[in-house]
Amino acid sequence: FEQNLTYSVPDDEKKDFVPVTLEVASTEYKSYMHAVHGMIYCFGECILWDRYKQSGQILMQMRCDGMVGFPGGLMDQDYDEPIVDCLNREMAEEINLDLEKYKFLQSDYLLSHVNHRKKLVTHFYIHQVTEVEIREIEFSTLKAKDWGHETFGTIRVPLFAMDDGFRGFPVFLANRFAGNARDQLLQGIVKCGLLSQKECDVYVKSFEEYIK
Ligand code: GTP
Ligand code: MN
Ligand code: MN
Ligand code: MN
Ligand code: MN
Ligand code: MN
Question: Which end of the chain is more exposed for a tag (fewer CB within 10 A), N or C?
């Protein structure tokens, strides 16, 4: 049969998430749904095939809906579950995170966004571990309660670009992301210093070029 491949990127990726302070999110938008997700990362130089240098690692996951996102989830609306408690609960459910060792703290909080169309607030935390620890965390994810149901596995974000300028991080950015996870990833990367704003801008430009 004849294949007729005419792909175009869906246009529902509008920037409809706007930044909001934690204060406003938890007062004015208290009645909205709230979700909280977390980025686990480490520093540690990793060179692929003696060529492509990465300054560290970031964990994301393949969700069962085919989108890429961070581990985390929806806050319980029925009682005032503290945001960071919800995050840790979801971390245990989705990636079997050992909370004795690796629990997220309120000091790991980075930013929040509100989506008025979806009546959804998203909160985002970033938490640094060591190279050895991130490996231990990755190994134990297969034993997570939600593995194979909600989440199809933890993945590393490629933090480099190959010689063509696309393969690597720019191509990764062309995945479908849940909510505003792509923005969270980009802001988290710069905030934790895994990439400079300048480096990030170059990758984003390549990504935009790639999806044209
Ligand atoms: P259930 O346990 O099945 O109810 O799911 P959950 O509690 O784990 O919720 P989920 O992680 O799917 O997050 C809830 C909503 O937040 C989703 O409908 C997405 O739109 C959005 N979302 C999911 N992952 C991310 C993410 O990494 N970042 C952001 N900003 N939003 C996300
Ligand atoms: Mn969940
Ligand atoms: Mn989830
Ligand atoms: Mn949940
Ligand atoms: Mn921390
Ligand atoms: Mn669940």
Answer: N
